[in-house]
Amino acid sequence: MVFTELKTEISMEWNINTAVDHATMRTLLLISLLLMSCITHAQTPEATVRDFYHFYLTDFVSDNQENPLNSAKMQQYVAKETLTRLKAIQDIKEQEIVDADYFTYCQDYAAEWISALDVGTARDDAGGKVLDVWLGIEDGKKRKLRDYLRQEDGNWKIYRVVDVSNGFEQNIFDDNAISAARAQAATLSQH
Questions:
Q1: What is the pTM of this model?
Q2: Which of 24, 38, 159, 183 has the fewest C-beta atoms lying within 10 Å of its C-beta?
């Protein structure tokens, strides 16, 4: 009889502990699922660049007279410092730092070239990512660019673009060139 009572008591204790453990696990699982649903999934660097260029090239070929640097979409895809520098350079009269569009290295772009966009695989680079981009251009050719990305506000953002095809970079990060362009613009405005 004592053995049966002891067995029943142990069985009840095990059932209570098991029930508590299961309830705790269910609660933790529910909390985890709720937290995961609140987290926004950050895009991959490749998806960020592909989405950016689809948006940007479409806007570039449109007759939209608005400055794209001020758009919410640009803020979504491009690093704050890059946008700030491009806006500052744009405000300098007769500057020679940016002589073509910074993101395409073109002065004009045709809508039919957009479908030729190709984005390479991201590689690690100095705490960020770098990937190659091929833009369709005239005569079925492609221009190879290299986009550098870094994380900002939990998202991958483009902060630097280099024209690999022509071995050229518009030096928007050269503070001396920007200062010289401002000084030159000041002398031009005096005449």
A1: 0.74
A2: 38
Domain map (residue ranges) of the chain: 1-39, 45-190
Dist. CA 81–CA 120, nearest whole Å: 24
d(CA 62, CA 109): 10
Q: Which two tokens stand for residue 21?
A: 């453990």
Fold of 45-190: Nuclear Transport Factor 2; Chain: A, (3.10.450)
Per-residue pLDDT reduced to its tens digit, 110-119:
999 999 999 9
Distance CA 112, CA 106 (A): 15
